[in-house]
Design brief:
heterodimer, A: alpha/beta, Rossmann fold, nine-stranded mixed sheet, 6 helices, globular, B: 384 residues, 12 helices, binds flavin-adenine dinucleotide
Chain lengths: 263, 384
């Protein structure tokens, strides 16, 4: 079985501050990490590898520093790594990113499973995985909390708000994973040593054979108009008195704001 | 001159930092309060290959350079110094004699088990009358055909009560003083004549095991004498201590960093006189001095590790790193506690634990006084 896992290097949003004036992320000096959902997708791939002797390719689009995240993926158990790195990719929105990644996946070819994280913490769109599946015209299962592989088939638990669906699909197919799918893992020293003996292939847009008219800032159908920090909610209100009085007051307040619904 | 870690060292640092923050640090308080040996943490460290960090790849280890080992020791110490000392006594003290002086047969027999973490190791030199005066070992090893019969006792042995393998120092010929010493490898399981004595009740490092060992006509096969020749024990022990000192220096740095991190947070939260503490210049100065001192100590430790990696003599560098790292741990934990006021004195905050844990770094693997003697001897060009 051949698995391709797509990962993104993102700023550690726990450490990111937003410039209140410009509304943009202050990225300088902020440590970067492998996007958490993507890491869980990779850990799942490694689990599948242990059972089925799969080959894992990790693929990322990003600046040269993204090599670090790919090395971490190799240390966690991936077999080979490819970085899509070209100015032509810069400023891609999710559609353009999906074209870049989808194009590169076609070039890699011969895949059975494509694993993605549900969403990246620096954008939270959850769009790239599904878009790539559409582009490649293969089935997709999103929000996977469990994956079982059988011969030419996968059985996946898909998380819903109030339970889960069990979905079976032929392969090849694309699955996006949520963090609940497995426990986090740390690279072993042996893994790290091996990761630095391997090569991280760097592909330009031409080498990846992607359609250059569908990538990059200028070819992105969406653009960010403005980003801003929502103003902080005002101070809460503390009610004092007997429980009965407070309850009455709350109901009055809710009624006043037409938030009472049925009663 | 280059102060940067390599990409591989950075990858190790990132891994161990994340691991310590979620798998070690949250359990440090419980290890201290309940005197709980950090068995789970040690098992997890073993899974990552860290218990075999000093062992060659050939025997199943990770064969890390000394800078990388120092990074790991600093981070684990920042999270939990009891876990760190247990790991250090294994990876640095116990493995060192076998890796550097063991016969091929000994390496094959013991190193894979130590590397995988199947065996937890310890190193036992100290005795009631042999502390700083390490040469004054009274434990005897008398040859009897293919075995040595060992009698005596060891005190203050880290991992002593939990170890599967202990390298002990004994004398085969008291008259020869340090030329009479030898190191023997004990596999403790079902070992006749091997008993545990008193378990120490300590000021700090309460999660780590510090144990007395008693040997009564304990028989050890002659194949277990490290290196296979008598009289090597002193050389081996000095080599163990030299190398271990870098680890203890950086343990001090890790403890100091943990205390500093708490102080930096607290000073920005606590208000007195209508202002946050960080607005008071006296405390700003304190913070600056603390950060500067921690960095100085850290740089001494990484320099010593770097010199060792170059294969050069590093006795002075290691002693300086140990001395300054330990005294830094004392000063920083004292100041960080001071910044916390009365809260720092209570068990609601980890400052009093850091303060208690810091003290040992000035004592074991050669007291600060002994480090000063070693440095002076190097400066003056003669033994102390
Ligand atoms: C928690 C803990 C863990 C330990 N783990 C181990 C272990 O795993 N293995 C092991 O073998 N040992 C271990 N030790 C022992 C430790 O290394 C010794 O305690 C240490 O070397 C000091 O020896 P001592 O306690 O006998 O003190 P002493 O040697 O009696 O020293 C007393 C004081 O005299 C000073 N002093 C001694 N000689 C001189 C001198 N010549 N000049 C100036 N001052 C001097 C010392 O600096 C000290 O201040 C451990 C100890 C503790 C507390």
């Amino acid at each position: 079985m051949n698995i391709i896992v797509c990962i993104k290097q993102v700023p550690d949003t726990n450490e990111v501050k937003i410039d209140p004036k410009t509304g943009t992320l202050k990225r300088e000096g902020v440590p970067t990490i492998m996007n958490p959902d993507d890491k869980h997708a990779l850990i799942e791939a490694v689990k599948i590898k242990k059972k089925t002797k799969a080959q894992i390719t990790v693929l990322s689009m990003g600046p040269p520093q993204a090599e670090e995240a790919l090395r971490e993926a190799l240390a966690l158990g991936a077999d080979q790594a490819i970085l899509l790195c070209d100015r032509a990719f810069a400023g891609s929105d999710t559609w353009a990113t999906a074209n870049a990644i989808g194009g590169a996946i076609k070039t890699i070819g011969n895949y059975d499973l494509l694993l993605f994280g549900r969403q990246a913490i620096d954008g939270d769109t959850a769009q790239v995985g599904p878009q790539v599946a559409e582009l490649l015209n293969i089935p997709q299962i999103t929000y996977a909390q469990k994956i079982e592989t059988e011969k030419n088939k996968v059985k996946v638990e898909r998380q819903m708000e109030d339970g889960y669906e069990i979905i079976e699909s032929n392969i090849p197919c694309l699955i996006t994973c949520i963090s609940e799918i497995n426990e986090t893992e740390y690279p072993t020293l042996k893994g790290i040593r091996q990761a630095y003996k391997k090569e991280v292939k760097v592909w330009s847009a031409d080498q990846a054979k992607v359609d250059k008219s569908k990538i990059g800032l200028l070819n992105s159908p969406t653009s960010v108009k403005k980003s801003f920090t929502p103003p902080a909610k005002g101070q809460g209100q503390t009610l004092k008195g007997s429980i009965k009085d407070i309850a009455k007051e709350i109901i009055d307040l809710l009624k006043e704001r037409e938030l009472t619904g049925g009663f | 001159m280059n102060f940067d870690f390599t990409p591989k060292q950075l990858a190790i640092k990132k891994m161990i930092t994340e691991f310590v923050d979620s798998e070690v640090k949250p359990y440090a308080d419980e290890a201290d309060k309940e005197e709980k040996f950090p068995e789970k943490q040690i098992k997890k460290l073993a899974k990552l290959g860290i218990m075999g960090m000093s062992i060659p790849e050939k025997y199943g280890g990770a064969e890390l350079d000394n800078v990388s080992q120092t990074i790991i020791m600093e981070e684990v110490s920042r999270g939990c110094s009891a876990t760190a000392v247990s790991m250090g006594a294994h990876a640095s003290l116990a493995c060192h004699p076998l890796v550097n002086f063991g016969t091929e047969d000994q390496k094959k027999r013991f190193l894979p088990k130590l590397a995988s973490g199947e065996y937890l190791g310890a190193f036992a030199l100290t005795e009631p009358n042999a502390g700083s005066d390490a040469v004054n070992v009274q434990t005897t090893a008398v040859k009897d055909k293919d075995e040595y019969i060992i009698n005596g006792n060891k005190i203050f042995i880290t991992n002593g009560g939990t170890a599967d393998l202990i390298n002990i120092v004994a004398t085969t010929d008291k008259g020869k003083r340090h030329h009479g010493l030898a190191v023997f490898t004990l596999e403790t399981k079902d070992l006749k004549g091997f008993e545990l004595g008193k378990k120490e009740d300590k000021l700090g490092l309460r999660g780590s095991n510090t144990q007395e060992l008693v040997f009564k006509d304990m028989r050890v096969p002659k194949e277990n004498m490290v290196g296979g020749i008598e009289g090597e024990g002193f050389k081996i022990s000095m080599s163990v201590f030299n190398s271990g000192r870098i680890g203890i220096g950086v343990q001090g740095v890790g403890i100091a960093q943990a205390a500093f991190d708490e102080a930096l947070k607290y000073i920005q939260e606590r208000e007195q006189f209508g202002r946050k503490l960080h607005k008071f210049q006296a405390l700003q100065f304190m913070l600056s001095d603390m950060a500067t001192r921690i960095d100085a100590a850290r740089l001494l430790c990484y320099r010593a590790a770097h010199v060792k990696d170059q294969g050069k003599r590093y006795v002075k560098e290691a002693a300086m790193a140990k001395l300054y790292g330990a005294e830094t741990a004392m000063e920083i934990t004292r100041k960080a506690l001071q910044i916390h006021g009365g809260y720092g004195y209570t068990k609601d905050y980890p400052l009093e634990r850091f303060y208690r844990d810091a003290k040992i770094t000035e004592i074991y693997e050669g007291t600060s006084e002994i480090q000063r003697l070693v440095i002076a001897a190097e400066l003056l060009g003669r033994g102390f």
